[in-house]
Design a protein that fits this description.
Distance between the termini of chain B: 36 Å
CATH topology of one domain in chain A: MetI-like fold
CATH superfamily of one domain in chain A: MetI-like
CATH architecture of the largest domain in chain B: 3-Layer(aba) Sandwich
CATH class of one domain in chain A: Mainly Alpha
Subcellular location (chain A): Cell membrane
Strand order of the largest sheet of chain B: 6-7-8-3-9-10
Order of helices and strands of chain A: HEEHHHHHHHHHHHH
Structural class of chain A: mainly alpha
CATH superfamily of the largest domain in chain B: P-loop containing nucleotide triphosphate hydrolases
Order of helices and strands of chain B: EEEHEEEHHHEHEHEEHHEEEEEEEEEE
Strand content of chain A: under 5%
Oligomer: heterodimer
Number of strands of chain B: 20
InterPro entries (chain A): MetI-like, MetI-like_sf
Strand content of chain B: 25-35%
Helix content of chain A: over 70%
CATH class of the largest domain in chain B: Alpha Beta
Number of helices of chain A: 13
Family (chain A): Belongs to the binding-protein-dependent transport system permease family. CysTW subfamily.
Protein name (chain A): Putrescine transport system permease protein PotH
Bound molecules: adenosine-5'-diphosphate, magnesium ion
Largest sheet of chain A: 2 strands, antiparallel
CATH architecture of one domain in chain A: Orthogonal Bundle
CATH topology of the largest domain in chain B: Rossmann fold
Number of strands of chain A: 2
Main location (chain A): membrane
Low-confidence stretches of chain B: none
């Protein structure tokens, strides 16, 4: 063995050195801590507030609900948890049907976005070095104008005296205007139009990383293009499909503006119900209960998906 | 079949016939008017520096690129309209291109499934080939769970299992570290011999090409500089490019002073060079002479009789490489000539060894100099 320097002879370190050393050893924790606190502050805390209100009772006051924890005279603490709001939502067929209708519209819209978005993303990935940035730019171009403005534009296009009807009448394809605005059709148009970029971009990111030589390898082994798509490309783009679908499905389910403006009163979606409860009825507890149920409806598929994906990864 | 079918063209039809094939990408001519015949059972190497068009030529054989002009036929069938998935070839990709979502077993079975082979037969074939590449224990693994060497063998197995008429390998060993590469070179040659499939191997490593191939083509800027057996290419290069690219060579300009049926004399900086075999040159013409460093003898004692194929110089530098030493000999004119000598004696004391600034004599056999026309 060689000599070991006595521990006392360790060089003194400046506070700055110690700080940088601390960062070096703890940077992983720090990096995780930032989004962690962000979520805690802006997601988890508001969620608990909403959950708390959903367990309260309506009261004509400000704020318009009862307190969960009350202190009576002799320092006795009473906790009131009221589940009436949830029972009310579950028993009233209006809410149940609205949830189901929202899910139907968001699932269908997600599938339509996938149907259009997949080939578009694939086309962009396969396009030349000149066309690619242009096409990508076109995908995100709509974000340059206000979302609300674009929905109003659709109203102008779809209404009875709108551009589309006028055009169709002008070329003689129809005599009477087709009713499009304030139908479910208009809501589908609005949702697919608005959320298509959210499908395309994750798919694009996924496909961009795909090794194109895999397609050649499949062809080399005797696989025709169609078969290569189903056996190689599609399985490898599942992460993109899932990411894009969630990005469309989640906001579409709770969508408020589009069903309100394009669907009018004819298309019931949970976002509108929530808004009505909150601002028209000022029934905050029921509104919060609606929000909590919605959250669970949205989170459940994600948890299930991650569970099954975890299982698939474990399997040999 | 003869050992060297290319020498007996009357009785052997080539498996692959490449005729006047060119391929352009925009302004870049990747492959420039190439002709080549490859025979059944060969292990043919395409050797050349990076960007010389090796991969492009291989991809045209596989059907991923189509030539701008010229024709390719494989097994007598013209390939100009045959897509990749219908060709009797399989390719081992430089990146291996293993399907990341499939296990080793399923990667290998993929090609057989395309032929609608019965399940049982597929299982048998996969089992056989896994045994050949010694990967039986890894068949359930995904490619990401394998080492580089194992992946390389999966890629080879996947390409071989379909028993193609022609196997195309693009830099098959480039991703392996040096030791593994050497070992795998011999394995690859053994496997080729066992299965009897014709191999075309692309490589930029001349040692690899020399070890593996029955014949090889040296490529530069989209053209073939020379095609021949490793020995032919090394001992009889036809151009300065090939002489310099394969191994190393001292290249000297000279003038032909005598040209007869059984010998040639050339006047160079190294004095008169006498070559004891006839060559296609004409007296008085300017020419280049190549001399391999290992074919030059370095001695401290002067030759007994003056004559051609000898000269004098001073040791400028010595590079000790272990098994050999490289001597850099400076001539009177200032030109440096490389000579190598094996270190057969352990130099405990350096008294007899050649050392810096020694005056030395160089000499070589009359069979050694290589006449280079271009
Ligand atoms: N798809 C392509 N598009 C444009 N240029 C290409 C393409 N493939 C190859 N090239 C060009 O052709 C030349 C030969 O390339 P390649 O055959 O890959 O060389 P090697 O395999 O010998 O390194 C290079 O100059 C390369 O840049
Ligand atoms: Mg290459």
């Amino acid at each position: 063995m060689t000599d070991i320097a006595p521990s006392g002879s360790r060089p003194q370190r400046s506070p700055l050195d110690r700080l940088s050393h601390w960062f070096q050893t703890n940077w992983r924790k720090i990096v995780i801590a930032v989004p962690f606190f962000w979520l805690l502050l802006f997601f988890l805390a508001p969620f608990f507030i909403v959950a708390k209100i959903s367990l309260a009772e309506l009261r004509i006051s400000s704020p318009p609900f009862t307190e969960m924890i009350e202190w009576t005279g002799d320092g006795v603490m009473t906790i009131r948890l009221v589940f009436d709001n949830f029972i009310f939502i579950m028993e009233d067929s209006l809410y149940v049907n609205t949830y189901l209708n929202s899910l139907k519209i968001s699932v269908t819209s997600t599938l339509i976005c996938l149907l259009f978005g997949y080939p578009i993303a694939y086309g962009i990935v396969r396009s030349g070095p000149v066309a690619k940035p242009v096409l990508l730019f076109l995908v995100i171009l709509p974000f340059w104008t206000s979302f609300l403005l674009r929905v109003y534009a659709w109203m102008g296009l779809l209404s009875d005296q709108g551009t589309i009807n006028n055009l169709l009448i002008y070329i003689g394809l129809i005599d009477e205007p087709i009713r499009m605005l304030y139908t479910e059709f208009a809501v589908y148009i609005g949702i697919v139009y608005t959320y298509l970029p959210f499908m395309i971009l994750p798919l694009y990111a996924n496909m961009e990383r795909l090794d194109m030589s895999l397609n050649e390898a499949a062809a080399d082994l005797g696989s025709k293009p169609m078969n290569t798509f189903f056996r190689v490309t599609l399985p490898l783009t599942i992460p993109g499909i899932v990411a894009g679908s969630l990005l469309v499905f989640i906001p579409a389910t709770g969508e408020y503006v589009i069903p309100d403006l394009l669907g009018g009163g004819n298309v019931q979606m949970i976002g509108r119900v929530l808004f009505n409860e909150f601002s028209l009825n000022t029934d905050w507890p029921v509104a919060c209960a609606v929000a909590v149920v919605l959250l669970f409806l949205l989170v459940l598929p994600i948890i299930l998906f991650q569970y099954f994906q975890g299982k698939a990864a474990e399997a040999p | 079949m003869t050992e060297e079918p290319w020498l007996d063209q009357a009785n052997n039809t080539p498996l692959v016939q490449i005729r006047g094939v060119s391929k352009k990408f925009g302004d870049v001519t990747a492959v420039d008017n190439v002709d080549l015949d490859i025979y059944q059972g060969e292990l043919f190497c395409l050797l050349g520096g990076s960007g010389c068009g090796k991969t492009t030529l291989l991809r045209m054989l596989a059907g991923f690129e189509f030539p701008n002009s010229g024709s390719i036929s494989i097994g007598g069938q013209d390939m100009s309209t045959v897509p990749a998935y219908e060709r009797p070839t399989n390719m081992m990709f430089q990146s291996y291109a293993l399907f990341p979502h499939m296990s080793v077993e399923r990667n290998i079975a993929f090609g057989l499934q395309q032929d609608r082979m019965p399940k049982g037969e597929i299982a048998d074939r996969v089992h056989e080939i896994l045994k050949l590449v010694e990967l039986q224990d890894f068949k359930k693994r995904k490619p990401q769970q394998l080492s580089g060497g194992q992946r390389q063998r999966v890629a080879l197995a996947r390409a071989l299992v379909k028993e193609p008429r022609l196997l195309l390998l693009d830099e098959p060993l480039a991703a392996l570290d040096k030791k593994l590469r050497k070992q795998t070179q011999f394995e690859l040659a053994n496997i080729q011999e066992q299965v009897g499939v014709t191999f075309i191997v692309v490589t930029h490593d001349q040692e690899e090409a020399m070890t593996l191939s029955t014949r090889m083509a040296v490529m530069d800027a989209g053209r073939f500089q020379q095609i021949g057996t490793p020995t032919e290419i090394y001992e009889f290069p036809q151009s300065r490019f090939v002489a310099d690219f394969i191994g190393s060579a001292n290249i000297l300009q000279g003038r032909v002073t005598e040209d007869s049926a059984d010998h040639v004399r050339v006047d160079t900086e190294l004095g008169e060079i006498y070559i004891d075999h006839g060559q296609q040159v004409s007296t008085g013409s300017q020419i280049w002479v190549g001399l391999r460093p290992e074919k030059i003898t370095v001695s401290k004692s002067a030759p007994e009789t003056p004559g051609p194929n000898q000269c004098k110089g001073v040791v400028d530098d010595i590079g000790y490489l272990g098994e050999v030493s490289i001597y850099k000999i400076r001539l009177d004119s200032g030109t440096i000539i490389d000579a190598t000598a094996p270190n057969r004696i352990r130099p405990m004391s350096r008294t007899h060894a050649i050392t810096w600034e020694d005056e030395v004599y160089l000499s070589w056999e009359p069979s050694s100099p290589m006449l280079l026309n271009t």
